[in-house]
Amino acid sequence: MTSPAALYFHPDQIEGEGRDLVGRRSAGEGFLKAWVRHGPTGELGVLTETPTHAAALEKALSARDMPRALRSHALSSGGDLSALGTIFFPTPGYSSAPWARLRHGPASASFVGLTHTVSTRRIVESLHDLLTQPVEPWDAVICTSRAVKSVMEKHFQAEADYLRHRYGAARVPLPQLPVIPLGIHTEDFAPRPGAREEMRARHAAPDGAIVVLTMGRLSIAEKANPLPLFLALQRLAEAGHDVHLWLTGWTDREAQEALHREGAAALAPGVTTTLVDGRNPQIRRDIWAGADIFTLPADSIQETFGLVPVEAMAAGLPVVMPDWDGFRDTVVHGETGLLVATRMAPPGAGAALGRRFAEGRDQYLQHLSLVQAQVQIDVPAYAEALAALAADPALRARMGAAARAHAAANLDWRAIIPRYLALADELGDRRAAAGPQPPRPSPLEGDPFALYAGYPSTTLRPETLVTPNGTPTEAQLEEIDRLSARLLYRRQTLPPARIAALCATLSAEGPMTVEALSRACDLALRPTIAAVLQLAKADLVRLPRPPLRDAGD
């Protein structure tokens, strides 16, 4: 490395007493340890908001048995940032640093942000605001997956177009968008002797049982709607397997936990389902050893990368994940696990959702729920993938070993931090080379199905054939809305009576295209798309199985 590199630190970005356990803090904790272990040697360059935050970092490093001398600079103190070179931030934005840099020349330092979720109102607004700050081409925002890069490009393009039309801007500098995954310390997940036996005994899973593990916050809209998993596992149980599902996680909303319990009881009565508190440090360390398969039916646009399947692979578990956002970057289909096809509404179908969210008529969880209702994980494919692993211990062992090797070689911080440092060199070279009124929609009103078009395997199209798979009653559809948290968020895509009528039409007339179904029900195309995807999510209609999105897309 030839260009200096430093990190930005705020106490809230790492785990600590009294702070909720969330993905960004877990990632921040891992990154801090990785930077100290594998980053620049000598004094640790650090940028903080205030001098007290530098003192908090010194204390945190000592508490983790990683004391280091700091070369710190506080934004509140002003001054030149050039000695820090390239500064890595834990969020997409750079705080007030671009304005501080301007005082000393825009090429005096580089700033690098990092994506986590890109769907909250605060983050979306900050991304658009970023382009009105003095950001330069020698800055960057690291995208943790190709899918999230596609979202970032659309946000930046919408804002750049707005600035050109509003102000006649001839130049809108954009930061670089390199794709670098998050890392983990893979050695932290190596199974400990006796852990498998202890975990299975603690949760009453006999030797011959197939234990399927999930991990993460029990938040349906923010993380994963478990409905497809329950349906798939019930099929596995009906095929004769003794299936145990360990829903490992945590929630601060009792209603969410209740929905998981009730969903498992209603949709997977043949599966022994156990809710395990994932905040327990021993559980977080050893639960992986007791499982046979890891999966997480993630279908929320809040997800961008997903650390837990990487952790599962590091623990030697084969994984079954949706072909959704960052999972297709980390799971090698057919080698370290299996990907399951997904589908969502096409670009253009969510313009009204984007407006409602931008205007505040839908709060964040309501927005997530409305979008999630039109995202489908293919249930039959999910069941087949789980069944293939459940029936073949040798396949599980082979994929588990490949998963562990893949995580160690490509997703350990030892492999990731050098990519950060290479980026610092590249941005340093860019700095050196730089030398001394027609109406338009708000760029914040992003159609979620256009923004996140890179997430699913494919989209539902007017010509897609829809085949009935039952005739649900209005009460049954209401129950599915309840279990999917749409009633909790007070947002239903359509009244159950309208969807029940659609199902009755489809059952009477037989398979037809989405467009034909729309005409037959005297229903506009967009709500028909929403109803079909919602029904397909619950396996009440069948759609042609889409191919997995090519790894190069």
List descriptors.
553 residues, alpha/beta, Rossmann fold, 3 domains, six-stranded parallel beta sheet, 21 helices, transferase activity, Glycosyltransferase family 4 protein
Estimate percent helicity: 40-55%
CATH topology of the largest domain: Rossmann fold
According to DSSP, the number of beta strands is: 18
Count of discrete structural domains? 3
Give the termini distance in whole angstroms. 31 Å
Order of strands across the main sheet: 3-2-1-4-5-6
Question: β content, as a range?
Answer: 5-15%
Q: Kindly report the average pLDDT value.
A: 93
The CATH C-level name of the largest domain is: Alpha Beta
**Rg calc:** 24 Å
> Which architecture of the largest domain would the CATH scheme give at its second level?
3-Layer(aba) Sandwich
**Major sheet summary line:** 6 strands, parallel
Structural class: alpha/beta
Q: Helical region count?
A: 21
Low-confidence sequence ranges: none
Broad shape? globular
Would you give an account of this structure?
This protein has a six-stranded parallel β-sheet. The two termini are 31 Å apart. α2 links the parallel β2 and β3 (70-74). It is an alpha/beta fold and 553 residues long. The protein contains 21 helices and 18 strands. The longest helix has 22 residues, at 146-167. Helices cover 43% and strands 13% of the residues. It folds into three domains: 5-179 and 415-434, Rossmann fold (3-Layer(aba) Sandwich), CATH 3.40.50; 186-341 and 378-411, Rossmann fold; 460-542, no CATH class. Pfam families: Glyco_trans_1_4 (PF13692). One of its GO terms (molecular function) is transferase activity.
